[in-house]
Structure prediction request, 528 residues.
Amino acid sequence: MPSESSVAQGRSGRLRDSYCLVSRRAVQPNAVSGRASQVQRSLSEKIIRNTLFNSVGFAWDFLIRFLLVPYVVAHLGQTRSAIWAFLGVFTAPFMLLDFGVESSFVKYIAEHYARKEHDGINRVVSTGLAFYLVFGIVVSLIVFVGADAFVRLSSLEPGLASEGAAALRLTAVSFLLINLVKVFESVFSGVQRMEITNLVRIAISVPYVALTVLFLERQMGICGLMWRDILVTGIQLVAVALCAFKVLPNLKLRLVSFVDRETFGKLFRFGIKVHVSRISLIVNLHFDKFLIAGFLDRSFGAGLVLFYDLATRVLSMARMFPALLFSATLPATSELAAQGEAERVYELLRRSTKYVMFLGAPMMAVVIVAAPALVAAWMGTGYDLSAQSIQILAMGYLALCLGGAVGSVVQGIGRPGIQVKAALFALVVHVVLGVAVVCGLRSNASRAFYGILCSTSVALVASLLYYYAVTLKAFGRSVAQFCADALWKPLVVCAVLGAGMSAAGPVFGLVTRQTRLGNIGLVLGYTV
Prediction:
């Protein structure tokens, strides 16, 4: 008969190999040693530190770009500013052509780092660099050859067309460098040293601002901004590469001996699943615009799309802040999964969900109650429909926040298929409900508009519950047990805060007396 220790080792090995996190044995209170407690505290400290640095880095980057936009627009003018903005939109489709390979770097680097497999890290990083080098060169060649033809399709004036084509070619070079930077930044995320990524980004903001002012004052226009991006990204690439070798002394880059088909296949198989879920999310978030503009009354549809778009911009910004709370959980989950720590992975899922709820639910309650005042302060009068759209969509966007917390965990345990199932489930429910609403209420554009919004929130919440059910099944837990453990307290805070703001809102001008009861009903209804 095998010994108990050998059985435990075999079980731990199977857990690491299959990434099935069902706990086979209850954890006894006295089973956690002092060393395990110290390791747990160390992991918690890493997550807290990385989350704080990610928050600071995000806030700094947002502030710099927000303050520079008026300056850039004033120097470029409206026409060139529109071209500048469109260049960013043009590169977005190329970002999707990597089939999600980037998303697998952090997971596998974290695993190899936890197991002290230095050759494994070298293979992942070298394979990633080789892939993005080839990928970037191919994209750059396509853009360089087709830039003139693409710009001609935009019906620009001849002078602006030549400038736009030149800027587009420079954008391709910047695109190549950015992808190489991401590979090295994945190293810091994988070893849970995200402060390096954020400190480098803060540091390069100095030449970013300086070159922006220098090139625009010299009347270099859009091409000047593109040269700025190339130079700053080049500096960033050198900085993160040097830091990566400093953090990992055993890191070696060999594009021949360390690049192999097996490593790329592993990265690709994982990444393509995450990629499918991301595409499904993009379609989910933009499907309503297609329904509103394409199937409602065409004489009124364009206006409705504008109201909808303004609402989603507010909610997308509100969603970013809770998302920062789980930005550091993917590498931590990968580390725990590599060690076979099923119970600690579940605890990480529970805590991250709880923290996102404690920040996200009250924030959405505030947004629901103050939506009319927020929209009026931002856009002025006449946008009441946007405020109402915010109130209806808020619960769906809160579900997206919670889904992000779950997504970091399922990616960390090597089960991105769960994420794909949830994303496709949301897409199917959303499409079915949306089409049904349009077919049933098409004659009444106003009712159909509200129905489409409701179908979006219902689909996102339903997919979240499905997401929880499938994920928690892997841990041997029920959705009811998890919700009672992680969600009810934040929801109570949300209800109290939202109802209190609605009751006191007229005093501070946040809400009117006429809409106070409606706001209280919305908040309490979402809580239930």
Remarks:
- Confidence is low (pLDDT under 50) at residues 1-36, 507-528.
